[in-house]
UniProtKB/TrEMBL annotation:
One of its GO terms (biological process) is signal transduction. It comes from Oryzias sinensis. PANTHER family: NOELIN-2, OLFACTOMEDIN-RELATED. Keywords: Coiled coil, Disulfide bond, Glycoprotein, Secreted, Signal, Synapse. Residues 224-476 form the Olfactomedin-like domain. Disulfide bonds join 225-407. It comes from the Eukaryota. GO terms for cellular component: extracellular space; synapse. InterPro entries: Noelin_dom, Olfac-like_dom, Olfactomedin-like_domain, Quino_amine_DH_bsu. This is Olfactomedin 2a. It holds the Pfam family OLF.
Length: 483
């Protein structure tokens, strides 16, 4: 009786010691005293993402002062949550997962030990009876008659189920030793990481970075417009569809609409897929289908304030389709505009009329015969599609790969193929232009759609069956109240 109980006591004592060490020591080692480990191995998150996608965010590249003392800032929207990509952060998360797994194993051992201990307690009286009968039989062997021997045999048979319980205790004791060794190894690794990181609380630093990102994001929304000075490396979101197509999110500012729209092909199509979020689009799930009353031409569609604006096939008519009501609200002819591959971009594809939006509203980029094939810009009234104002850029549309508007400026690429760059800019606020030299990486060598989203300050592109994003760098002069 005493030997099994000693084994049980040793197992329980070891479990209590290791569990207490884990609960008190590990959080302080990794600087996560505010994170509690709950039953089942799950942890309470004390920091959550502050922007829809884990790869999105805001950052200041440089700042300076001009000759007049004005603050000049270059702000770009690269990747967010830099701490999440830090190798030490990944290593810490992996170690914490191991700790949680160990915690789960300890809880299982605790539950099993408690259950088996109750079983041992219940058999204690039976063991005392057997022990008494054995003593009597050993002192007076003749007192053990056949009936008494059978009773003793039956009592011993009732104790046989205790043997696998004791075997399980032996195995559990070995597991405790393994867990204790693994915890010791984790402790050494965590202390090395803590020494490498220094005296700072890593989680506190991460929270401060997230707070800074939130402030920068808010600042970006207040900064207003700027001049394009750079384009980031491409971010491939998904590989889907044919060589030509269009995809987009709502360009209206402000908007909390996170839906993504997907239009495959460049002529005679009617199907538009609507995904609930960007994550759903990446996974190809949670979408509904819209069937347009009129087929489209080209890939120059745009979503603005919950409606799709597109060029009706074999016409210069612009159609406004409202997604919620699934109906056409208005359609209007763009007077004199070429269509049906009369004045497309260099890649063709019925791209005569390109609709787009920026911080200043809704635009149409096209060409007329009277303008000798040069690009024309018209600002449109979103409700009626009436042309409010028009500019002749003087740049031949067939020499352009694609174009997009940022802050009332039309930027034009010189090709749709590899080696393309942003070559020309037309400023509608001054009716002037300049030749630029802004390179960007055309990763898949055939761009058939390139549009700017002012809400996210990103370029959306369709590149040879790949849906790709670019971050943009805008140069801005920020005037203080004393200027």
């Amino acid at each position: 009786m005493s030997v099994p109980m000693l084994k049980i006591g040793a197992v329980l004592s070891t479990m209590a010691m290791v569990t207490n060490w884990m609960s008190q020591t590990l959080p302080s080692l990794v600087g996560l005293n505010g994170t509690s480990i709950s039953r089942g191995g799950t942890s309470e998150r004390i920091v959550s993402a502050l922007y829809p996608s884990p790869e999105e965010g805001w950052q200041i590249y440089s700042s300076a002062q001009d000759a007049d003392g004005k603050c000049i800032c270059t702000v770009v929207a690269p990747a967010q949550n830099m701490c999440n990509r830090d190798p030490r952060s990944r290593q810490l998360r992996q170690l914490m997962e191991k700790v949680q797994n160990i915690s789960q194993s300890m809880e299982v051992l605790d539950l099993r030990t408690y259950r088996d201990l109750e079983y041992v307690k219940n058999t204690e009286s039976l063991m005392k009876v057997v022990d008494g009968k054995l003593k009597v039989a050993s002192e007076n062997p003749r007192s053990l008659n056949p009936k008494g021997f059978q009773e003793l045999k039956d009592k011993v048979a009732q104790l046989l189920p205790l043997l696998p319980v004791l075997d399980q205790y032996k195995n559990d004791a070995k597991m405790i030793l393994r867990l204790r060794e693994e915890v010791r190894n984790l402790s050494l690794v965590l202390m090395n990481i803590q020494e490498e990181m220094g005296a700072y609380d890593y989680e506190e630093l991460r929270q401060r970075v997230l707070l800074l990102e939130t402030r920068l994001h808010s600042c970006m929304q207040k900064l207003g417009c700027g001049k394009l000075t750079g384009v980031s490396n491409p971010i491939t979101v998904r590989a889907s569809g044919s060589r030509f197509g269009c995809w987009m999110t709502d360009t209206m500012i402000p908007s909390s609409d996170n839906r993504v729209w997907y239009v495959d092909g460049y002529f005679k199509g009617r199907r538009v897929l609507e995904y609930r979020t960007m994550n759903d689009f990446v996974k190809g799930q949670n979408f509904v289908q819209h069937s347009l009353q009129h087929p489209w031409a080209g890939t120059g569609h745009v979503v603005y304030n919950g409606s799709l604006y597109y060029n009706k096939y074999q016409s210069n008519i612009i159609v406004k389709y409202h997604f919620r009501s699934r109906s056409v609200l208005v359609q209007r002819s763009l007077s004199g505009a070429g269509y049906n591959n009369t004045f497309p971009y260099s890649w063709g594809g019925y791209s005569d009329i390109d609709l787009m939006a920026d911080e200043n509203g809704l635009w149409a980029v096209y060409t007329t015969i009277s303008n000798a094939g040069n690009i024309v810009i018209s600002r449109l009234e979103p409700q009626t599609l009436e042309v409010l104002q028009t500019w002749d850029t003087g740049y031949p549309k067939r020499s352009a790969g694609e174009s997009f508007m940022i802050c009332g400026t039309l930027y034009v690429t010189n090709s749709h193929l590899a080696g393309a760059k942003i070559y020309f800019a037309y400023y509608t606020n001054t009716s002037s232009y300049e030749y630029t030299d802004i390179p960007f990486h055309n990763q898949y060598s055939h761009i058939s759609m390139m549009d700017y989203n002012p809400r996210e300050r990103m370029l959306y592109t369709w590149n040879n069956g790949h849906q790709v994003l670019y971050h943009v760098t805008l140069f801005q002069v920020i005037k203080t109240s004393g200027d």
